[in-house]
Design brief:
This protein has 16 helices and 15 strands. The protein is α/β, with parallel strands linked by helices and 459 residues long. It has a 7-stranded mixed β-sheet with strand order 11-10-9-12-13-15-14, sandwiched between helices. The chain starts with 15 loop residues before the first strand and ends with a strand.
Length: 459
């Protein structure tokens, strides 16, 4: 086994690395981590953590004196922290604390608490870095405490005051939001809150004071296990109560939409017929709001990725996933006019949205009530949006609101004196341009509306 095979993001941990073989994720463990791995195994910690859905399950495939190879359960699509809604981010934070508390109860501890160690799998958050578990050392603080603050508590608290859009800032800070920045963004009154003062403001002040000191000269702090449990419980209880106060236009889109019941039902029926025709098992809805139309699909879907630009809509979808105990739907936030880029060292640690969805290769792409926003709000020409969808769509079901549609009319009128420059926005130009990348399979007008549904197949 050579390190040439390792994943680009897997260079930070000296205990082992992740690699991809035949499209499967595997993990190599070095001898330096053998004692921890064997203790976790013989104590049945792994087995119990798997049962409680705290840690991604794995099977051991190879065991030599030089390395151990394990294969974790395969997650079809990974979303990153800057693609999570507020409630998803909360769940990820709380899940990390649950695992840390469970580990402490069994004399282990997390040495890492990065948000990138969490993925959403079968409707729930799951911890995916097996090698983050280490032995607990008596009377020592939580090694990953500061990392938890910069990856979880800090971003969530700032989002509480400034909106969920702040969570996207994580794409600029792969190692967590700097403490000084977090503290500076919080209202002055938060210094009067004992919890926030202790866990953010005082921590930031301490960091500034000691950042130039010799680390070796710094005395190691002492903290009992009971003290650790108290910190974890206080973090858990505070984060659990965090709420956003902001509302949005799209969070209740289907209560405000200009669809009649007849149009809604016909649209759903057409989509169902086409999904059955193409026998789609996997789907991505790139403007799926709260997942309404995906839930209307009657064919069996193995996995549906449902993205939307609006945090509240994604939160509602996430809530529905939890309430219905759905394992085949993955909500996430996405701005199609600026999808997540590749980030990290050499821009290879975290893949772009385009790279991930191309690798996922969904059987069907849904783009419903979306093209007018891309074309009229984003000023994206049809040839550009068609090329975008063609990069990952085998079959494209796309809805086109005509110029007479109330939403399209509103967007056109917003152009004021530049409205005439958007004369190209019409059915004829749309069909002609998209036919350069796709074969038109079917086209149907939605009754009682000014909208048309298209089924395209990539050429």
């Amino acid at each position: 086994m050579t390190t040439n095979a390792q994943h680009a993001s897997s260079y930070r941990d000296p205990s082992g690395y992740v690699y991809v073989e035949n499209d499967s994720i595997k993990r190599i463990i070095f001898p330096s981590y053998f004692p921890q791995y064997e203790a976790l195994q013989t104590s049945e910690f792994f087995q119990k953590a798997f049962q409680h859905k705290l840690l991604i399950p794995h099977t051991e495939t190879e065991h030599t004196e030089n390395h151990i190879c394990i294969q974790p359960a395969q997650i079809p699509f990974i979303t990153y922290p800057y693609e999570w809604s507020f409630q998803q981010y909360k769940e990820a934070a709380l899940h990390t604390l649950k695992l840390q508390k469970y580990a402490l109860q069994h004399n282990f501890s997390l040495k890492d608490a990065t948000a990138y160690n969490i993925a959403f799998y079968k409707g729930n958050a799951i911890f995916i870095d097996t090698l983050s578990l280490d032995f607990y050392q008596e009377n020592t603080p939580w090694r990953a405490y500061k990392q938890f603050i910069t990856h979880f508590l800090g971003p969530l608290v700032v989002a509480k005051y400034h909106g969920a859009e702040f969570l996207k800032t994580m794409s600029n800070f792969i190692d967590g939001i700097p403490l000084k920045m977090i503290a500076s963004l919080l209202p002055g009154k938060t210094k009067l809150n004992p919890f926030l003062y202790t866990n953010i403001h005082l921590l930031a002040k301490f960091e500034n004071k000691h950042q130039e000191e010799d680390v070796k000269a710094t005395k190691q702090a002492s903290l009992s296990k009971k003290g650790l449990f108290n910190i974890i419980d206080s973090l858990y209880n505070y984060i659990k109560k965090l709420k956003l106060s902001s509302q949005s236009e799209w969070g209740n889109y289907y209560q405000k939409t200009n669809y009649s019941d007849t149009a809604f039902q016909q649209k759903s029926s057409i989509i169902n017929d086409w999904m059955q025709e193409i026998q789609a098992k996997t789907v991505i809805d790139v403007g799926g709001n709260d997942g309404t139309f995906v839930r209307e699909i009657q064919t069996e879907i193995e996995l549906a990725l449902v993205g939307d630009i609006d945090n509240n809509a994604v939160d509602q979808n996430h809530y529905a996933v939890k309430k219905n105990k759905e394992q085949n739907m993955l909500p996430f936030t996405i701005d199609l006019l600026n999808p997540s880029a590749a980030i990290g060292f050499q821009n290879t640690e975290r893949s772009s949205f385009i790279e991930r969805v191309k690798a996922f290769q969904p059987d069907a792409t849904l783009a419903l009530a979306l093209i007018h926003h891309i074309s009229l709000t984003g000023n994206v020409p049809f040839q550009n949006s068609a090329a975008f969808f063609a990069t990952f769509s085998k079959n494209l079901i796309i809805e086109f609101p005509k110029r007479a549609d109330s939403y399209a009319t509103r967007l056109l009128n917003a152009k004021a004196e530049f409205k005439d420059q958007f004369g190209h926005y019409n059915v004829e130009n749309f069909e002609k341009t998209y036919s350069e990348h796709f074969k038109l399979v079917a086209k149907k007008e939605i009754a009682d509306s000014e909208r048309v549904l298209y089924l395209f197949k990539k050429k």
